């Protein structure tokens, strides 16, 4: 009796907990393997619940609704429940039916002694030597090398030249039939490699090439929280893979309609949520190809297709009827031999089809331009890798096809299209709003002496007299406030346009160098969350900067000076946070220059009439070149409360010091309290957050009418940004994603850093008197006393 009981217990526990098939223990139809941590199960199943079509498949053991993510014998079911999955002497996995006919077998290239098959926690079914288990190199075979329609974390899709593998995902034919449909997903290794979704021999969708961080055509993968994406492109392999943190369950699937879906498991609802899919719209769908060669697609425009600058419709009559499939042709022939051709840059593009493009990983962007100019067939170039300041060169020598433009400044990549000089000149005159008004007031006298020597400013120089009259001789009535380097005036030009004029104080810290710095910088930067510089003026000692006018002044005014009942509601606060984040993302990652602002604070965030934030004041900004990621200065400039510890203490500035200032701003926006003096908003928020009642810090002027989740995410992002160690702080791409994310998925912030007003510095100069009604806050310059 006792013996029988023990036997029963043993066989029962084996039935539920086994993850391994051995020669003596094959897997019968009524058994399953369960991975060690209980995530995955493997066994026989019928997609249509009939007993006469049995497949060996993999699913999530704990999920109520069964989602099959891998099938062994997808083309050859066992016709009744007599099938067995077993392992042969040499290590081949085989599925046999009752009369021992082999229905499916793993294709082994090597023999293995003492073979066992094990279902790993990752969902990978591997064959290995039972006595040699030191990782992936010892697997004689793995299911991950033969995906079905689903890519799991840790799986690689793409080509392994050494192992001679070409891993693709192929959709099921239908819900009840796992056999391969014509839809498949692969890595196209030609030209600059990219993801490709196909229907038979037809391309359905391409991702755009991998640029070191993401595919140029997949904006959303910037970085999902809890994900790592990797793209390997070398002699041995060209593969794409991703990992997730243990709390995130995700899959990438080609579904039966030929759509590539990224899904996330949501535990609370017990369901898969599709978080993104491709193709998204007509512009994405290569079967439609709405815009032919040399046309750019933008679904937000009407019509969707537009010829690239310097090109005109090939079939104007068809174009008129919105048929753009013939695409566009060059207006003016290239002048290759004479060397007068130039380049027009299109920003935020999903790069044109790269299957015929060539890539030189060793060439810089400048070298790339030279290479393109020296090759008469070159039509365009772009940077291959945007990481670490950028490297690598993609050259197109044929038509530019499947080109799309994103309206979002933080998406896509710059594409440099080669044009004849005359088409470039036309474009400049048409794009420049300055030129249109040049007759009225942009008289350029002898004033532009120093600047014009370098001649790298495509910026109008203003006549001092015009500005005098626009600002009513810099009258006190027109004064908007006192900036770090002098007063700012409102002005109105002859044509009625309102402007803001920054008049640099003669004694200002901002000398000619800083002045030029700011002018050159902002003139090159254009983003809807950066304030626009309209022009400048130098006359004798006078240095003036002309900006677009921001009717709503600056953020500090709204946050710290308005009576509580006029406070900003959450929607506007969130819009401001997102706008600043996008502006900063552009500065750090997406503009042609890599810019560190160095003086981000509430008074430098201006608000337009719709309360859109615009980052201003670039007098302190620095451009980083090459793979420079960190700078060091002996002259620490910035504003207390916003300065990261490493910057204030050691003069080290980087994207991470800007991220710190951004974090302070976010916390100020949420709490409505200023981060200065003895009161450190970040410290207070941190303390209440640790105690679990961070909502208590939310600006009471918002009442209780705000979405708690969104506010919580923002608080957490703010805290992550002000962490003491720069390496713990996120970069702006992650910040943007996190701001839209679920606060529960965000990492746990560490203690914030504080740059306290302390000993090792002396103030070199303070340029303005504090003024409570001032909307342009004061900056201080610190000099390291060591
Ligand atoms: C199962 O199918 C095999 C082959 O089709 C057949 O030989 C066998 O008799 C069947 N067994 C049962 C129990 O139906
Ligand atoms: C075993 O069954 C298959 C059908 O599943 C059949 O085609 C084959 O002839 C059978 N072989 C023997 C030896 O019975
Ligand atoms: C594996 O072993 C079988 C016999 O056990 C033999 O026929 C076969 O050639 C071997 N294959 C390799 C790749 O060594
Ligand atoms: C990989 O497989 C896909 C689908 O069969 C094919 O189109 C592609 O050319 C293959 N790639 C390589 C490098 O063989
Ligand atoms: C995922 O993790 C595995 C194992 O740690 C590692 O080999 C692989 O490179 C990682 N892949 C990515 C995309 O991070
Ligand atoms: C992503 O990669 C980083 C660095 O390799 C690692 O520290 C982190 O744990 C990874 N995250 C996931 C989700 O795999
Ligand atoms: C495939 O995915 C798309 C996008 O998520 C969805 O609209 C479509 O219904 C899916 N098709 C099937 C058969 O599930
Ligand atoms: C190149 O320059 C020569 C001489 O200036 C001119 O005649 C010719 O038209 C130019 N070629 C092109 C393609 O513009
Ligand atoms: C690539 O080149 C081939 C052969 O010249 C041509 O048929 C094909 O259309 C080109 N593809 C693209 C995307 O330009
Ligand atoms: C690129 O540079 C590396 C290291 O500088 C060198 O080993 C490699 O040969 C170069 N490749 C090409 C294609 O020039
Ligand atoms: C631009 O990107 C942001 C952040 O990813 C997103 O919230 C927003 O909806 C996008 N805007 C458009 C028009 O797609
Ligand atoms: C510039 O504008 C003029 C007049 O509006 C127009 O005729 C011309 O085609 C435009 N040039 C370009 C390159 O778009």
Automatic annotation (TrEMBL):
It is a single-pass type I membrane protein. It is found in: Cell membrane. Gene3D superfamilies: Bulb-type lectin domain, Phosphorylase Kinase, domain 1, Transferase(Phosphotransferase) domain 1. Residues 336-420 form the Apple domain. Residues 474-746 form the Protein kinase domain. Belongs to the protein kinase superfamily. Ser/Thr protein kinase family. This is Receptor-like serine/threonine-protein kinase. It comes from Dioscorea zingiberensis.
């Amino acid at each position: 009796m006792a013996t029988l009981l023990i036997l029963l217990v043993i066989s029962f526990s084996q039935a539920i907990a086994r993850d391994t098939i051995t020669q003596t223990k094959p897997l019968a139809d009524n058994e399953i393997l369960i991975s060690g941590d209980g995530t995955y199960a493997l066994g026989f199943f019928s997609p249509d619940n009939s007993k006469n079509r049995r497949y060996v498949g993999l699913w999530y053991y704990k999920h109520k609704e069964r989602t099959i993510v891998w099938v062994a014998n997808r083309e050859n079911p066992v016709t009744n429940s007599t099938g067995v999955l077993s392992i042969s002497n040499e290590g081949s996995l085989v599925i046999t039916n009752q009369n021992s006919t082999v229905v499916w077998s793993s294709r082994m290239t090597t023999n293995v002694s003492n073979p066992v098959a094990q279902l790993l926690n990752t969902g990978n079914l591997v064959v290995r030597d039972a006595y040699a288990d030191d990782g992936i190199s010892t697997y004689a075979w793995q299911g991950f090398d033969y995906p079905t329609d689903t890519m799991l974390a840790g799986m690689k899709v793409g080509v392994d030249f050494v192992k001679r593998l070409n891993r693709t995902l192929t959709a099921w034919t239908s819900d009840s039939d796992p056999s391969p449909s014509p839809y498949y997903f692969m890595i196209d290794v030609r030209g600059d490699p990219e993801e490709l979704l196909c229907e038979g021999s037809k391309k359905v969708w391409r991702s755009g090439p991998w640029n070191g961080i993401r595919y140029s055509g997949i904006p959303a993968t910037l970085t999902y929280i809890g994900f790592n994406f990797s793209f390997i492109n070398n002699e041995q392999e060209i593969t794409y893979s991703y990992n997730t943190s243990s709390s995130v369950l995700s899959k990438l699937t080609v579904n039966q309609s030929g759509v590539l879906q990224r899904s996330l498991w949501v535990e609370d609802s017990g369901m898969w949520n599709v978080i993104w899919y491709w193709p998204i719209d007509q512009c994405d769908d290569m079967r439609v190809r709405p815009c032919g060669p040399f046309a750019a697609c933008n679904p937000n425009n009407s019509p969707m297709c537009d010829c690239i600058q310097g090109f005109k419709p090939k079939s104007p009559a068809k174009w008129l009827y919105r048929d753009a499939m013939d695409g566009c042709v060059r207006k003016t022939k290239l002048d290759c031999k004479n060397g007068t051709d130039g380049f027009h840059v299109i920003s935020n593009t999903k790069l044109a089809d790269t299957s015929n493009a060539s890539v030189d990983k060793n060439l810089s962007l400048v070298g790339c331009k030279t290479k393109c100019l020296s090759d008469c067939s070159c039509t365009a170039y772009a940077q291959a890798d945007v990481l670490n300041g950028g490297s690598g060169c993609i050259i197109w020598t044929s038509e530019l096809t499947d080109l799309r433009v994103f309206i979002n400044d933080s998406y896509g990549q710059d594409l440099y299209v080669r044009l004849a000089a005359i088409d470039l000149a036309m474009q400049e005159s048409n794009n420049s709003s300055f030129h249109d008004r040049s007759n009225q007031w942009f008289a350029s006298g002898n004033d532009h002496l120093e600047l014009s020597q370098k001649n790298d400013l495509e910026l109008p120089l203003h006549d001092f007299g015009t500005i005098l009259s626009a600002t009513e001789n810099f009258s006190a009535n027109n004064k908007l406030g006192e900036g770090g380097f002098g007063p700012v005036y409102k002005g109105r030009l002859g044509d009625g346009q309102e402007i803001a004029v920054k008049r640099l104080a003669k004694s200002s810290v901002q000398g000619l160098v800083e002045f030029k710095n700011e002018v050159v910088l902002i003139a090159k930067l254009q983003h809807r969350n950066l304030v626009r510089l309209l022009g400048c003026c130098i006359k004798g000692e006078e240095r003036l900067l002309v900006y677009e006018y921001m009717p709503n002044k600056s953020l500090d005014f709204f946050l710290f000076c308005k009576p509580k009942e006029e406070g900003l509601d959450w929607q506007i606060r969130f819009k401001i946070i997102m706008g600043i984040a996008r502006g900063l993302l552009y500065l750090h990652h997406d503009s042609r220059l890599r810019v560190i602002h160095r003086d981000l604070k509430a008074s430098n965030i201006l608000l337009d009439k719709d309360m859109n934030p615009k980052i201003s004041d670039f007098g302190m900004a620095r451009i980083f070149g090459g793979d420079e990621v960190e700078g060091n200065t002996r002259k620490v400039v910035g504003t207390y409360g916003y300065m990261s510890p490493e910057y204030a203490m050691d003069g080290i500035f980087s994207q991470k010091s800007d991220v710190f200032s951004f974090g302070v701003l976010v916390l100020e926006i949420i709490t409505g309290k200023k981060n200065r003096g003895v009161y450190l908003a970040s410290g207070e928020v941190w303390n209440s957050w640790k105690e679990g009642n961070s909502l208590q810090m939310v600006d009471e002027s918002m009442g209780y009418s705000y979405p708690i989740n969104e506010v919580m995410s923002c608080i957490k992002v703010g805290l992550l940004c002000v962490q003491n160690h720069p390496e713990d702080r996120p970069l702006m791409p992650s910040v943007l994603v996190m701001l839209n994310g679920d606060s529960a998925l965000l990492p746990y912030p560490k203690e914030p850093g504080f740059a306290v007003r302390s000993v090792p510095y002396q103030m070199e100069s303070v340029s303005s008197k504090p003024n409570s009604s001032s909307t342009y806050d004061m900056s201080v310059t610190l000099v390291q006393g060591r």
